[in-house]
């Protein structure tokens, strides 16, 4: 939407971007139309309505045009494409051509038009054409800026100056600073200030990009690029399957939670914390996750259990205010009735049951039933030993899947998934001033767990199982402890156990991102732009996502289990994750609940 660079490092955003009246794009790394998915995009099979001969014919037409124009290509496929951010209702059938990393914008644009016309002449309608540089097809990498880069110590002041000085900021959502580009060698991508704007915005930001670049250049950072892009941030909530261990009744950090009776999607239980109040000896144990994980989203507030006036009053209040023990008792009663939490989520149980049922169906194929028929004949039947062995192996798997399905079904039927209700929380949009007088975001909720769910894990004032669920084999999986962010440094390796992506690791990004909040002006009509600082984690080196939908609420830790933060969401377009610092959360818990002490629940003494 806007780009400015005077750096010596190449960027995929260099050069003009032109869209003609037919919807065809011409740019440096990509061309095509009449409809192109926004990047990043997922590539899937083209669908059952194209047989092999038709696919071969369509791909052949594309190859013919490219040969006639003397254009090299690295691959042609008829595929379905889906935008990762705000995906289309249906896949976009596309002739996808991977091109060498030597862009020829004019020739590529011409090729897409000619391929499209050739397809139409042969009555292949509704197919888009996309020529894309191979580097760009493989992905845009977002990675941390090294602490020895000259922009590192300047970033906070530069971000504040950009927000203060730039005109026409009413469409801005926030600012980031990463290495950003298509080079798989991450350190070779240009350092880029990324300015996120509203998704609905259509205005070009070319002049604004130049203005921001001027501010950077004046501070000695002319080699830093400036990019305007549509906002891709969202809370990470989704519907996953669940591990069998979660049906035992114990509480598992890193496993899914859902809102009781709600149609909303699922997220992750973070872990156990303990509060001690003034003049009290005993610690009080709660589960901790994000508040947005326990608050029904607007699109799901039509559920029947939320239609009372009390429920609507509570939801309206917690949009902007915290849920506090010092509140009107009626609000605490409302929370007890509508902010009820399941663990694991029943929607997940249903998905898991459906998945197991499909697996059983897949294994009971024609050969399975043929073998069974011969075995049922007794002495009159005959099977080769190899076929009999395959049948017995399949039968063993089917019986295992049926046994597991029965366990999930039993939990779904008896309601043993109910975890407890929310007793305190930040509300949906809480920010506050930290010890350095900077505005930071906090997003947390405390869940009170009934004794029948928690007693089996209590050992006096200690709790067993307070560690990330081990979805994959990790060298270590220590209990959670600590709860501090003071000694976090850039490029520190951080871990999380989340419901959707399991155990993952990535590097901490030392440069905080900026979220722009709009607060009602104290000077009259209008609003004031206020900077809120957000901690971020960039894409891991192996390019696998650190987090996806369903992972909100996960605790972020060091390799030894020391807790640094709570995962709150991310930017799907950039592939980054944002989180709340755990010490900010603990300070806010003290402020809202009146607790004298807050700690990570310690493990039993071995």
CATH architecture of the largest domain: Beta Barrel
CATH topology of the largest domain: Thrombin, subunit H
Helical coverage, percent range: 25-40%
Q: Structural class, from secondary structure content?
A: alpha+beta
Q: If strands are numbered along the chain, what order do they take across the biggest sheet?
A: 15-14-18-19-22-17-16-31
Catalogue the unreliable spans. Answer: none
Number of strands: 31
Form type: globular
Q: CA-to-CA gap between the ends?
A: 58 Å
CATH class of the largest domain reads Mainly Beta
Task: Explain the overall architecture.
With 606 residues, the protein is an alpha+beta fold. The protein has four domains: 8-138, no CATH class; 143-231, GMP Synthetase, Chain A, domain 3 (2-Layer Sandwich), CATH 3.30.300; 244-343 and 420-600, Trypsin-like serine proteases (Thrombin, subunit H), CATH 2.40.10.10; 346-414. The chain has twelve helices and 31 strands. The strands form five sheets. It has an eight-stranded antiparallel β-sheet. A hairpin with a 7-residue loop joins strand 16 (271-276) and strand 17.
Tags for this entry?
single chain; 606 residues; alpha+beta; GMP Synthetase, Chain A, domain 3; Thrombin, subunit H; 4 domains; 8-stranded antiparallel β-sheet; 7-stranded mixed β-sheet; globular
């Amino acid at each position: 939407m806007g780009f400015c660079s005077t750096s010596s490092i190449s960027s995929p955003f260099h050069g003009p971007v032109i869209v003609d009246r037919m919807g065809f794009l011409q740019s440096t790394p990509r061309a095509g139309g009449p409809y192109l998915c926004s990047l990043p995009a997922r590539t899937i099979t083209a669908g059952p309505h194209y047989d092999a001969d038709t696919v071969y014919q369509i791909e052949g037409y594309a190859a013919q045009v490219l040969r006639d124009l003397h254009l090299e290509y690295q691959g042609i496929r008829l595929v379905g494409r889906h935008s990762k951010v705000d995906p289309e209702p249906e896949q976009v059938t596309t002739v996808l051509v991977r091109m060498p990393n030597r862009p020829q914008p004019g020739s590529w644009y011409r090729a897409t038009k000619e391929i499209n016309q050739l397809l139409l002449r042969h009555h292949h309608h509704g197919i888009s054409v996309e020529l894309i540089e191979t580097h760009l097809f493989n992905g845009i990498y977002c990675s941390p800026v090294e602490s020895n880069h000259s922009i590192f110590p300047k970033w906070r002041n530069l971000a504040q100056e950009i927000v203060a000085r730039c005109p026409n900021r009413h469409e801005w959502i926030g600012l980031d600073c990463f290495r950003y580009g298509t080079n798989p060698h991450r350190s070779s991508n240009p350092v880029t200030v990324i300015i996120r704007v509203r998704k609905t915005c259509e205005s070009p930001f070319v002049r604004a990009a130049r203005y921001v670049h001027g501010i950077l250049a004046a501070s000695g950072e002319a080699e830093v690029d400036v990019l305007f892009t549509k906002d891709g941030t969202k809370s990470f909530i989704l519907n996953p399957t669940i591990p069998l261990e979660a049906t035992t009744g114990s509480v598992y950090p890193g496993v899914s939670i859902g809102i009781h009776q709600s149609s909303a999607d699922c997220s992750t239980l973070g872990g156990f914390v303990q509060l001690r109040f003034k003049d009290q000896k005993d610690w009080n144990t709660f589960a901790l996750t994000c508040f947005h994980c326990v608050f029904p989203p607007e699109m799901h507030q039509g559920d029947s259990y939320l239609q009372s006036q009390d429920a609507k009053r509570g939801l309206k209040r917690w949009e902007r205010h915290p849920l506090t023990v010092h509140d009107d008792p009626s609000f605490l009663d409302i929370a007890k009735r509508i902010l009820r939490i399941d663990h694991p989520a029943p929607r997940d149980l249903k998905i898991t049951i459906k998945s197991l049922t499909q697996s059983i169906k897949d294994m009971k194929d024609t050969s399975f039933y043929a073998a069974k028929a011969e075995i049922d004949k007794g002495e009159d039947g005959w099977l080769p030993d190899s076929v009999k062995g395959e049948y017995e192996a399949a039968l063993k798997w089917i019986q295992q899947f049926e046994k597991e399905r029965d366990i999930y079904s039993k939990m779904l039927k008896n309601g043993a998934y109910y975890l407890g209700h929310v007793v305190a929380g930040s509300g949906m949009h809480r920010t506050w001033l930290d010890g350095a007088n900077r505005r930071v975001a906090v997003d947390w909720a405390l869940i009170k767990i009934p004794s029948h769910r928690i007693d089996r894990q209590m050992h006096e004032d200690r709790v067993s199982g307070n560690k990330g669920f081990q979805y994959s084999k990790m060298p270590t999986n220590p209990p959670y402890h600590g709860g501090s962010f003071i000694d976090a440094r850039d490029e520190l390796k951080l871990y999380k156990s989340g419901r959707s992506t399991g155990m993952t690791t990535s590097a901490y990004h030392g440069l905080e991102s900026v979220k722009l909040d709009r607060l009602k002006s104290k000077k009259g009509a209008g609003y004031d732009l206020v900077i809120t600082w957000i901690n971020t984690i960039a894409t891991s080196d192996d390019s696998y996502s650190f987090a996806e939908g369903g992972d909100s609420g996960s605790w972020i830790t060091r390799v030894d289990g020391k807790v640094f933060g709570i995962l709150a969401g991310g930017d799907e377009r950039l592939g980054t994750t944002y989180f709340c610092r755990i010490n900010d959360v603990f300070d806010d818990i003290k402020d809202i609940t009146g607790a004298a002490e807050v700690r990570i629940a310690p493990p039993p003494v071995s």
